[in-house]
Amino acid sequence: MVLLVVLLTAGIFVRNWLIAENTAGAYVKNPDLEQAYDWINHNLQPEAVIMTPSLESNYWLIMKTRAYVFNPHGLHSLAPTTELIERLLLTFSLFGIDNDYLEQFLSFQSTPGTLPHTHESLDLSGYDYIFDSLSGLQSSEAKTDIAKAKATFQAAKLTWEEAKKKYRLDYIFFGPSERRISHQNFAADKNLVKVFDNQVVQIFRVSD
User: Distance between CA 34 and CA 36 in Å, rounded?
Assistant: First the structure.
């Protein structure tokens, strides 16, 4: 069991490092993001759970902070696939992301072993993030799970309270990657309390 945990931890680090290195050429280091990561490390409890619809932000939060992400990578999580999809649906719904984006996000990528190299391609690599399809094959189970997810997403009208009842959720992260995906005005949401703002990144605490 200990060996399994060590291997899983090593796998998470190597994969996240490869993705970070592969996407590094797409942008210059952003001091505002670094400030946000530093604030998280110095002000949030170690086990705090942060939600973001951006896979890019998920990877960097794992690499640069001690917080947990609400949407873990499928290969490195013991949670069933149905839960991983449900967590993403909750996130997309609460961030006001439309069905067209979900279609792109869950579309099957048929090129095995290819790492995304832009902000947009990384954030749209949802199929690989959930199913880790390095074989280049799409399983029938994945097709079924995705079909159910899309139907659920179209009918979903979820609240922060409902999300917190089902899963632990402490904060949301809203930076440049999130703004490319979502246009929500979280500052006006009475269920959220802004705890960090450097004009580029905002972090909100989800009220109990």
Answer: 5
Parse the chain into domains and list their residue ranges: 2-206
What SS3 class is residue 168? coil
The pTM of this model reads 0.74
Helix extents (H) in 156-207 = 160-166, 176-181
What are 44's two structure tokens? 């949030």
pLDDT digits (tens, 9 = 90+) for 148-197: 666 666 555 678 888 888 889 999 999 999 998 898 999 999 999 999 99
* Alpha carbons 93 and 102: distance in angstroms, whole number: 10
Angstrom distance (rounded) from CA 150 to CA 164: 22
For strands 171-174 and 49-51, give the pairing: parallel
DSSP-assigned letter for residue 133: -
pLDDT digits (tens, 9 = 90+) for 91-124: 888 998 877 777 777 775 545 455 554 555 565 5
Spatial separation of the C-alpha atoms in residues 188 and 207, rounded to whole Å: 13
CA distances from 148 to 47, 144, 160, 182 (A): 31, 6, 22, 23
